[in-house]
Amino acid sequence: MQATAFTFDARTRAGSVLLDDGTPVEFDAAAFDAGGLRLLRPGQRVRIRTEGSGGERRVVFVTLQTFPDPRA
After folding, report:
1. Positive/negative CA dihedral, 10, 64, 5, 61
2. Does the pLDDT value for residue 1 go beyond 80?
3. How many CA atoms lie within 13 A of 29 on its CB side?
């Protein structure tokens, strides 16, 4: 799934993305670390993997759009 980076805190390595329908979804440091990134800038297109649905949806993997998802 693709999204756009919305917020990112380099200190905590957590932030949020906007899905293509405008829905914000947060990610934690574990999801950021899983993607092998060092930095993320708001506005960057990213590849994400989510778990759950509705209010329980969470991002479990985030990386740049051009990087592969090892589970795909």
Report:
1. negative
2. yes
3. 5
Distance (Å, whole) CA 8 – CA 27 = 9
Three-state secondary structure call for residue 58: strand
**Considering only CA atoms, which of 55, 56, 32 is closest in space to residue 47?**
32
Cα 14 off chain centre by: 9
Name the pTM for this structure.
Answer: 0.88
Question: What is the number of alpha carbons within 13 Å of residue 68 lying toward its C-beta?
Answer: 3
The per-residue pLDDT for range 7-52, each reduced to its tens digit, is 999 999 999 999 999 999 999 999 999 999 999 999 999 999 999 8
Predicted pLDDT of residue 22: 94
> In 1-72, where do the E strands start and end?
2-9, 14-19, 24-27, 45-51, 58-64
